[in-house]
Design a protein that fits this description.
Blueprint: E1 2-3, E2 8-11, H1 15-26, E3 31-35, E4 46-49, E5 52-55, E6 61-62, H2 66-74, E7 81-83, E8 91-95, E9 98-101, H3 106-111, H4 117-126, H5 140-148, H6 150-164, H7 174-177, H8 179-187, H9 191-204, E10 213-216, H10 222-229, E11 236-238, E12 241-246, E13 251-257, E14 260-266, E15 268-271, H11 275-280, E16 282-283, E17 299-310, E18 322-324, E19 335-337, H12 339-342, E20 351-359, H13 364-367, H14 371-386, E21 394-405, H15 412-424, E22 428-430, H16 440-456
Parallel strand pairs: 1-14, 2-3, 2-15, 3-11, 8-18, 12-16, 15-22
Antiparallel strand pairs: 4-5, 6-10, 7-10, 8-9, 12-13, 13-14, 17-20, 17-21, 18-19, 19-20
Bound molecules: flavin-adenine dinucleotide.
Amino acid sequence: MNNCSNSIAVVGAGLTGLTAAHRLVQLGRRVRVFELADRPGGMIRSERDGGWLVEAGPNSLRETSPEITQLVTSLGLDPVKTVARPEAKHRYLVRAGRLLAVPASPSELLGSKLLSFGTKARLAAELLRRPRPRVADLSLAALAREHFGQELVDYAVSPIVSGVYAGDPAKLSARHAFPSLWTMEQTHGSLLRGQAAQARARRTAGHLSPTPVFAFSDGLATLPRALAAALPGGSLEFGAEVAHLQPGPPWQLTWHRGGVAHTEEFERVVLALPAAALARLIIGPGGARPLAALGEIEHASLTSFFLGYARSQITHPLDGFGLLVPAVEKRSVLGVIFSSTVFAGRAPAGHIALTVLVGGTLRPDLATLAPAALLPLVQRELAGLLGVEGDPVFERHHAWPHAIPQYNLGYERYLGAITRCEQACSGLFIGGHVRDGIGLSDCLASGLRLADMAMADEILPQ
Ligand SMILES: Cc1cc2nc3c(=O)[nH]c(=O)nc-3n(C[C@H](O)[C@H](O)[C@H](O)COP(=O)(O)OP(=O)(O)OC[C@H]3O[C@@H](n4cnc5c(N)ncnc54)[C@H](O)[C@@H]3O)c2cc1C
């Protein structure tokens, strides 16, 4: 048994775990990071192939806080940071089989064919709503319907939810999945006035609004690689599956590689794992799995296609971030990111790259189809929506059977299990996309929170 009793174990080297480990090292702690895979980054996977840059998982990060900006700068990544091009601020939505630009301002909205006159009038009336205390949670669809009507649920909320959660607005919890909307209703009444106030507050605090979207010239994996490289040598253990924790102090952590079990001692343990891994974890004697309930959390399954074409194969100008498809349109794709428009360097000269997402909780049947069966469906959609002709000249696909946890109604059951587990085990800290928000910026904030919590209660012996 290795004795590292004055150091902290971080389990999981996705963005959450690596951020936590990096912060702990900055604060002077010794850390050991255990990662099942043979590379850092978790869901972040960037692959360069000649002039193509494929993002198998997430495509971009939102710069929602100064901590994100500082972290990127402190890692020396500013020279390779690529901010989304100005054209990417435009978005498209599908309505009645056609692509319509999403209005970027109230005056554009008035002239837009995206929403009926009735819904536009409801939007104006919504501005007059007074703050409303609400105790019981409700679905995002119910919240939005109450404020704006069904058409806005179908043609704004549902596609946004597809783009973020690949989920079902009728099942997602307003309180847990969109906490800022939940709070806005209590403080402002009107969600529209709440959003405007939030944007004003950001500008007053010196932040850009809307929040900038960025990646790196060699893809998002640059960030976890840099975080991993900044850790002291020998602190990252790849191919290490953590299976058992014996509460301390000192905590005893058992990990496996190639059928061989290793046990090490730590003062504290940070868990930055997906729900299924937390559910399997044995904590304490007797084989108890206190987080077993997390195994029941619904996850969206996704298949992501990265498709490259010669520019001449596409008639659409691709002048935007991409397009989203409302579920009521009953199509096979959830959305398309115009990858080579959003960021430079994604496709060779004279070519364009699209990232197409298929599946989600409303179409799990599609995410499980073999890519060879799915690609023709995708190509038919791209032909109809963007005027794409012929086969892609470059193609990659990635299946994500447990892509995104759904913060559905009743999610407090899972959050409660996590809190109870922490309370029962002093020195255990749990975070990541199962608890703190599913976006990369949430995961980064989660990593910082975990590190600060692990440092908070007492100064560890050096
Ligand atoms: C297709 C797709 C597209 C997305 N697009 C975006 C986007 O554009 N922007 C955005 O902000 N977010 C996006 N997301 C969401 C975002 O990628 C994730 O929420 C985030 O990466 C989760 O980070 P994490 O560190 O919490 O977890 P993970 O990245 O899942 O990391 C957890 C790590 O734990 C390891 N592990 C598991 N079990 C064990 C064990 N027993 N022992 C040791 N290690 C273990 C895993 O191998 C993994 O490396 C997307 C997600 C998907 C799937």
